[in-house]
Amino acid sequence: MKHFSNRKLLLIFTVFLSANLFAQDIQLTRIDPPSWWVGMKNKEVQLMVYGKNISNSKPSISYPGVLLKETIQVENPNYLFLNLEIAENAMSGTVSIQFNKGKKTVATYDFVLNERKKDAKLFQGFDNSDVIYLLMPDRFANGD
């Protein structure tokens, strides 16, 4: 009878341990914005990382001209914010962002740095010339 209870205890312990390990599973679902441009006036960009238990990982970047300045954890374990600094001399290409737990890489994201068009500074944004006003008379012909 004692042999049976030890087996039962071992089974319960195994189930509990596997459920606990499963709960710590880390998955990367998406990163916003999914890409950025080199040569922007503001050198800093913040990425919002979403995925199951992603805050249990430690992100790292190894790309010339791109520096991971800060990793911000929030109360929700499924979100993580990364503050990047993109140097003026950074080249366009694919920045590999690795998410590690201990010595193991649990997720990788290819963040694309696009080449900014030379004439991008010449584009004008939305202003009054883009708006069409609907004119409506406030009085009718009979004055009512």
Helix content: 10-25%
Round the mean pLDDT to the nearest integer and report it: 82
N- and C-termini, Cα separation: 99 Å
Strand content: 35-45%
Shape: flat
- The value of Rg in angstroms is 27 Å
Tell me what you see in this structure.
This protein is of the alpha+beta class. Helix content is 15%, strand content 37%. The protein contains one helix and eight strands, in the order αββββββββ. The protein has a four-stranded antiparallel beta sheet, with no helix packed on it. A hairpin with a 5-residue loop joins strand 5 (66-73) and strand 6 (79-86). The longest helix has 22 residues, at 2-23.
Topology:
Elements: H1 2-23, E1 30-32, E2 35-37, E3 44-50, E4 58-61, E5 66-73, E6 79-86, E7 93-101, E8 104-114
Parallel strand pairs: 2-8
Antiparallel strand pairs: 1-3, 3-6, 4-7, 5-6, 7-8
Provide tags for this entry.
single chain; 144 residues; alpha+beta; four-stranded antiparallel sheet; 8 strands; 15% helix
In short:
The protein has 144 residues and is of the alpha+beta class.
